[in-house]
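Section 4.2 – Deliverable D4.2 (structural model, holo form)

The reporting period included a commitment to supply a predicted holo structure for the target in complex with zinc ion. Inputs used:
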Amino acid sequence: MCDKSHGDIAQIVADSGAVGADLLIAEQVTELVTANHILYAQGVVDAFGHVSVRHATRGDCFLMARNMAPGLVTEQDIIAFDLDCRPMNADGRSVYLERFIHGEIYKARPEVMAVVHSHSPSVVPFGVIKQSPFRAVCHMAAFVGVQPPIFDIRDVAGDGTDLLITDQALGAALAGTLGTNAVVLMRGHGSTAVGDSLRHAVFRAVYTEINARTQAQASQLGEIIFLSEAETRAAALSTEGQSDRAWNLWKRTAQSVHLSLLQQALLTEQ
Ligand SMILES: [Zn+2]
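Output (structure tokens):
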């Protein structure tokens, strides 16, 4: 495990001893900032929600922004965490309450390289309605599958919680419900998507929201013909490798949205 309690990301990289690690981590930090901006521009996160990536050369650490709105994240806001979610270079900055979602999934799923947690608005209804189970309705969201799990915090911590994943035990329970799936819904709260890269997890988070929107629209028109299990497997194989194409487009949109936010901030200061 990472045993440093303080220090900066550069030092953590130096500790890894990997050749070219400093370049790798610089690229990761830049991509993580872009991921934050994309998720905001695509309506997956608003002032809340977060995205993380497993450290490029140290699998027992991950990177995530400090506690702030994703749309405003810069490279200076990225903090390294160990898998018990202790910040390694926070230097007094506050961190996300629900960081345990990330740490416990990284522990449970060694192949997962990135995690997105959001309260994306179209997904929340499917976590609270028993009669309308969430499942893949279009090929781009085939990874959703035919029965994505729903985590109910009441099953683990009883009634009266604030529904947030604020410690390791709750994070481990959520990771257990996620199992080997790509996405887990969280009753009365939101959802969490995982991927084998940052781009992959962002792709899944965006298309989880799109699938929810589409399923809700379709349900108003009549009986839905969902993707079958075989179709979800086949479609996932052909669509999931396309995340770079989506990323490159969404990055442009995100840059435009971010520039607009910066301009608004400048106008406010004047
Ligand atoms: Zn949350």
